[in-house]
Amino acid sequence: MTNTIRLFFILLIFWLLSSGHNSPLMLSLGLGSIILVLFIVKRMDQLDHEVFELKLTFKLPLYLFWLLKEVCLSNILVIKCIWSGNHVLSPALITVWASQKSELGKVIYANSISMTPGTITVDLVGDKIMVHAISNVAIDALLTGEMDQRITQLEK
Known about the structure:
Layout (H helix, E strand, L loop, with lengths): L1 H18 L4 H20 L10 H31 L7 E6 L5 H13 L3 E7 L2 E6 L2 H8 L2 H10 L1
Antiparallel strand pairs: 1-3, 2-3
């Protein structure tokens, strides 16, 4: 029951922040849609298996600031590659290992890789993530494991 209440409030806050409507009709429709989602999730028997962890919400903003910095640095790297010409480009497919325990952590890791310019997640199977990178510098940045470690820290 605790997960149901937690999910209800997460959905309610998300709906209120993203809708921008506060008329009685819209509030009742929003409440109805939240109840419908809770009913569907309960019928699918997914409520108690892997629910968005509330503790993750407090650590996530710090990670997002770090990711924004990495996206900016990666943009500079891609611009340098474009200006330098084809001799700097060395596209490659590599496999990195995800040390996250939850599926949510692995998905955050894979999406974070794709958000950084110069790299994109091609496949995620188990603990292996196949990544396409445009240069050795992008590969080296990924292989340091800093992003993996930061996301693993989100789960703790």
